[in-house]
């Protein structure tokens, strides 16, 4: 709720690397080839989503209810980040760009959760403008992020992509988080009315679960996590971009 992941999100550190006194050993040639292919495919996938949004907007002449035009690819590529969470961040990407794995995991899981357990499950919120807010933030963030990973793996990272990676989150992350929170809030009345995913007592498991309350707790969790994520990224931005500028001056 990720941010985003965002968003823009972007994920926790998501490649917001810094000066590295010690680099972990990166992936081998075969793993690098796989990772490059994966990131190229994901970049292309989010570009498809971006083009779909633009085409739907031009066809309709309105930004309302654009979610339906990109629903399937959004679900596919956002869910695909689960594979990245395990294979890329947990095993390989720390050797390329340092990441906060805990915060990254939170952002990946929160975005998948919002995609399936909120937007997909509560059909009534799919027409909310807040959905478009986080979809646009996620889309821009992911195009930049996967491009960043691809060029980093190829050891040829253009400054423009690095700058975008470390700068646009300043707007995209708050934008994505706002859309996510507003969407969850819009879903609450429908969840309470329908009893979606809730389990009442008595039952043979002697267990109860109130999805309405759970969503409220999810919203509250943004209070401690989002500032930590955001300020961590601001700190990383200062270190990386200042280091880049110093390196340029020394050349």
Automatic annotation (TrEMBL):
Report which reactions are catalysed by this protein.
(3R)-hydroxyhexadecanoyl-CoA = (2E)-hexadecenoyl-CoA + H2O; a very-long-chain (3R)-3-hydroxyacyl-CoA = a very-long-chain (2E)-enoyl-CoA + H2O
Cite a single GO MF annotation. very-long-chain (3R)-3-hydroxyacyl-CoA dehydratase activity
Q: Where does it localize?
A: Endoplasmic reticulum membrane; Membrane
| Keyword Transmembrane helix attributed | yes
How does the entry describe its membrane topology? Multi-pass membrane protein
Which EC numbers does the record give? Answer: 4.2.1.134
Mind telling me which residue stretches traverse the membrane in this protein? 33-58, 96-119, 131-154, 166-191, 211-231
Annotated Gene Ontology cellular components are: endoplasmic reticulum membrane
* Compositional bias (Gly residues): 1-10
Do you know which InterPro entries this protein is assigned to? Tyr_Pase-like_PTPLA
Is this entry keyworded Lipid biosynthesis?
yes
Location of the region described as Disordered in the Swiss-Prot/TrEMBL record: 1-25
Q: Which family does it belong to?
A: Belongs to the very long-chain fatty acids dehydratase HACD family.
Explain the purpose of this protein.
Catalyzes the third of the four reactions of the long-chain fatty acids elongation cycle. This endoplasmic reticulum-bound enzymatic process, allows the addition of two carbons to the chain of long- and very long-chain fatty acids/VLCFAs per cycle. This enzyme catalyzes the dehydration of the 3-hydroxyacyl-CoA intermediate into trans-2,3-enoyl-CoA, within each cycle of fatty acid elongation. Thereby, it participates to the production of VLCFAs of different chain lengths that are involved in multiple biological processes as precursors of membrane lipids and lipid mediators.
Protein name as catalogued: Very-long-chain (3R)-3-hydroxyacyl-CoA dehydratase
Give the organism, scientific name: Circaetus pectoralis
